[in-house]
Design goal:
The chain is built from 35 helices and 16 strands. Helix 2 (30-47) packs antiparallel against helix 3, helix 20 runs antiparallel to helix 23 and helix 23 (413-422) runs parallel beside helix 29. The chain is an alpha/beta fold and 862 residues long. The strands form four sheets. It has a six-stranded mixed sheet, sandwiched between helices. A five-stranded mixed sheet has the order 3-2-1-4-5.
Length: 862
């Protein structure tokens, strides 16, 4: 349905009034639709046209639903569906089912699903493509609420794409808002803002469209999560004015809840309680069960902060009851976490553990339906506090095995699931949506070659659209795979898998104290660290920033050693430490921590990293089954001269050096890496392996790389530029050469990497920032490293910052010489760093600490 001029309620033709009311309703403008429906019903009644009168009445009730009672409206619609008038009129029945589905989603998700399923079948039979598509989108929303996020994304994303094709403006606004809301729920707030902005833009350029309340509410929530509180307050205040002007009780309630959450973030519990109690009262009066759940949950937090635990428990139980009644599965773990935290404060530890475990089980159920790695990581991320709280509870009881099992249930979960699921799925590369990938490749190629700012802005908008489309139809980091429910390995098995000189230090950052799970072949214990998460992460950030800018940071390096290493008994620190980091520690090279004598940790032990202990075990088990033949594939010497001008990330003290990093793809110049060609040749020759394969100069292209039998290579070395935006891991890429005869853009992105058929013992990413990524809570860091692990690499050598080209070449030459001499990867890397450190002018960490080894590095490459 399209736009038209407004019809006056004084019109005497009810058919014109009804058609105009339907048009307003179709573009989500219930305020203008309501009086037209009301007048049309009166006229149809006077003419004895019962069918159209009922259509108008249902339209009016739907348009004014927020002023009435949702349970009463649902009951009325159920009665009408049983009447002979509705049953004998398919289009009227469809209209009634649509109204009931829109109502029931606030009351009972299962009932709403039945409504929309029936509506879709009927719409298909009637040839109503618009309503069929909207029914599909609403079923996607229901799928999300029931925990099936993968299928939900397909349905809602598909509904949006079809709305665009059909010219359905109301559908576009609705599904842009919903997709943004889904991203916000997954803590992907920067991406969500893009969807909300597009929704408001579509509404603004459509004169008849209603106010996009959900876009404003979602934007306010996303801004709040990003810490942009003043912007969030302004956005929500504007929406509240509109909600009160249009008498939208439901939206007014939602906005009051968000203002209450904003007050809580500002530590104003009094204002928060006022907002939330008001929202709760409106929800109870109108039967807004979903909003009541949210209001009660937030109220419990507010009362808990004020110390009123009795009221907190009352509100939380009320919220849980409402949540279970409507069948809302997605938000249940968060509510169970809050209940567990409250029970801990009340000293009911057994009940708290039960609530935590119930929440963890619900998360497991949702993960089965996660469409791929990025979605799964986000689901685990938003539930991180659940696992940490349960871990702390078991730590109180000094049950090391139970605490280990709990934190490992979340740690590196995506990596474990993908590794164990990979063998079940064949030919995953063929499943990628080639149309969207092709469009992205073409746009990126144009973007790299453009020197025109206006043209680049247009290309970036188009690129956003195509990448959004790819997100709708497949996960953006890895192709769709059926994920199995995996469980962490038992602690005893983790201990038995370690070599005598190997120790795992698995960190858990929390408040008021953090922890280190120490695991050796003979013993496991939990060490309570002398600092909490905020202090540790602040010191880590300060140290990382100092190293990146080549400033001295001895105080921070020694403070972190004192907090993170010194509490671990010296006899349990093996000559090879495997670090399982948490939070900002994912960006910290532990090797540069200094003991009180001024010695770097590197000087006493080899260090490698793992997403989790279970991931390490799985990688070790896979290593046992690999072929013994060693084959080397190296790519370097890429010619970047034909691309656009680059803004290099170069340190103040090495302004003439060539950095292997890339700040942005828009209007950047890709400077050639003169040492990368020699680095690749030296690496292959140092290993002493037969028939190494080199892709150099004009042959160092994405197309040539993909044509190689990648599953045959034991070592893959890529010396190139990289692009790793921390908040958009799906855009991270290695920049290879571009073959003008192919459709490849030269950007080997995460979604492509994860689909590669690798069986490599080692992948070396000799480029900048390849080890950095978006930190997804207890799930870990999502980066290019994880993409290569998903693809089948046993270990990945990557960088944490922009690296100097010549220093990197020297490090790599020493590293591969060590591998060729039979050293294990961790020891070879340690010795290479020590060798670089001994060179004149390269003693400081920026030259040697940036490269870290992630995965299984305690065995020689054979």
């Amino acid at each position: 349905m399209g736009r038209s001029s407004a019809a006056s309620t004084s019109s005497s033709d009810p058919h014109i009034l009804l058609a105009q009311a339907d048009r307003y309703a179709w573009v989500l403008n219930s305020s203008k639709a309501a009086p037209l429906y009301f007048r049309a019903e009166e006229l149809f009644d006077s003419q004895g046209d019962a069918a159209n009168a009922l259509h108008a009445r249902i339209g009016f009730l739907r348009a004014t639903a927020e002023s009435g009672s949702f349970p009463q409206l649902s009951s009325y619609l159920a009665q009408q569906l049983q009447t002979s008038l509705v049953q004998s009129n398919p289009r009227l029945r469809l209209w009634c089912l649509v109204a009931k589905g829109s109502t029931d989603i606030e009351l009972n998700v299962g009932a709403a699903k039945q409504d929309w399923e029936q509506a879709q079948v009927l719409a298909d039979a009637l040839g109503e493509r618009g309503w069929s598509n909207r029914a599909s989108g609403e079923l996607g929303v229901i799928g999300f609420l029931q925990g099936d996020s993968g299928h939900a994304a397909l349905l809602v994303g598909g509904a949006l794409l079809r709305s665009i094709l059909q010219g359905d403006v109301g559908g576009q606004i609705r599904y842009l808002e919903l997709l943004g809301g889904g991203l916000t729920a997954l803590n992907r707030n920067e991406e969500a803002l893009r969807f909300f902005s597009r929704a408001t833009h579509v509404a603004a350029k459509t004169p008849d469209a209603g106010f996009p309340f959900m876009a404003y509410e979602g934007k306010g929530q996303a801004l709040m999560a990003l810490g942009r509180l003043s912007e969030a307050r302004a956005t929500l205040s504007q929406a509240l004015v509109e909600a009160e002007k249009e008498h939208k009780r439901g939206h007014r309630t939602q906005i009051l809840i968000l203002l209450g959450e904003l007050a809580l973030r500002s530590n104003d519990e009094t204002a928060a309680i006022r907002y939330l109690e008001q929202a709760g009262q409106i929800s109870e009066q109108a039967g807004f069960q979903r909003l009541a759940t949210q209001a009660m949950f937030d109220l419990a937090g507010a009362y808990s902060q004020t110390g009123d635990l009795v009221k907190a428990e009352e509100r939380l139980q009320a919220g849980l009851n409402a949540s279970r009644q409507i069948g809302d599965r997605y938000f249940l773990p968060r509510q169970l976490e809050a209940l567990a935290e409250l029970q801990v404060k009340l000293g009911r530890f057994a009940e708290a553990h039960g609530a935590y475990q119930q929440g963890e089980d619900v998360i497991d159920g949702m993960l089965v339906h996660a469409r791929g790695a990025y979605t799964e990581s986000s689901l685990v991320s938003v539930a991180s506090d659940l696992y940490v709280g349960d871990f702390q509870l078991e730590t109180r009881r000094n049950d090391v095995a139970a605490a280990f099992s709990i934190i490992e249930r979340a740690r590196g979960r995506t990596a474990v699931d993908m590794l164990l699921s990979r063998s079940q799925t064949a030919n995953v590369r063929d499943r990628a949506p080639t149309d969207a990938n092709g469009q992205i490749s073409a746009l990126q190629a144009k973007l790299l070659q453009s020197n025109n700012a206006a043209e680049r802005a247009t290309l970036l908008d188009s690129l956003d659209d195509q990448e959004d489309e790819l997100i709708y139809v497949s996960d953006s980091v890895a192709p769709s795979r059926h994920l199995r429910i995996t469980h962490p390995i038992p602690l005893a098995l983790a201990e038995a898998s370690l070599s005598p000189d190997e120790s795992i230090l698995e960190y858990v950052l929390a408040e008021p104290n953090s922890y280190c799970l120490v695991i050796t072949r003979d013993r496991a214990l939990i060490v309570t660290l002398p600092a909490g998460q905020k202090a540790i992460e602040a010191a880590a950030t300060s140290l990382i920033d100092s190293i990146r800018s080549e400033r001295t940071a001895t105080a921070q390096a020694r403070q972190l050693y004192d907090w993170l290493i010194n509490p671990v008994p010296a006899e349990l620190r093996g000559t090879h430490l495997v670090i399982v980091p948490d939070g900002r520690l994912h960006l910290l090279p532990f090797e540069c921590l200094e003991n009180p004598s001024g010695k770097f940790l590197l000087q006493s032990t080899a260090v490698s990293y793992a997403p989790s202990t279970t991931t390490l075990f799985v990688l070790k088990e896979e290593h046992i089954s690999r072929l013994a033949q060693v084959t080397f594939l190296g790519l370097g010497g890429v010619s970047y001269d034909t691309r656009a001008p680059m803004i290099a990330r170069v340190s103040d003290h090495i302004t003439r050096a060539v950095s292997r990093g890339l700040f942005d793809l828009a209007g950047v110049q890709l400077t050639n890496l003169p040492a990368s060609r020699r680095e690749v040749l030296d690496a292959g020759r140092s290993l002493g392996v037969p028939d190494p394969v080199f892709l150099l100069d004009s042959n160092a292209t994405e197309t040539a790389f993909k044509r190689e039998p990648l599953d045959k290579f034991k070592i893959i070395h890529l010396a190139v530029h990289a692009f790793a935006p921390p908040e958009s891991p799906e855009r991270a890429a290695l920049l290879l050469g571009r073959d003008p005869k192919s459709g490849d853009d030269g950007l080997l992105q995460t979604r492509e990497i994860a689909a590669l058929p690798l069986r490599a013992d080692l992948v070396t990413l000799s480029a900048c920032d390849t080890g950095t990524g978006k930190i997804e809570g207890e799930e870990g860091s999502l980066s290019l490293v994880q993409a290569f692990l998903f693809a089948g690499a046993r270990s990945v050598l990557a960088s944490l910052w922009s690296v100097d080209d010549s220093a990197t070449a020297a490090l790599m030459k020493e590293f591969y010489s060590g591998l060729g001499a039979g050293k294990d990867e961790a020891s070879a890397l340690r010795d290479a760093k020590l060798a670089v450190m001994s060179q004149s002018g390269r003693q400081s960490p920026p030259y040697w600490a940036g490269f870290t080894l992630v995965g299984y590095g305690d065995s020689p490459v054979r």
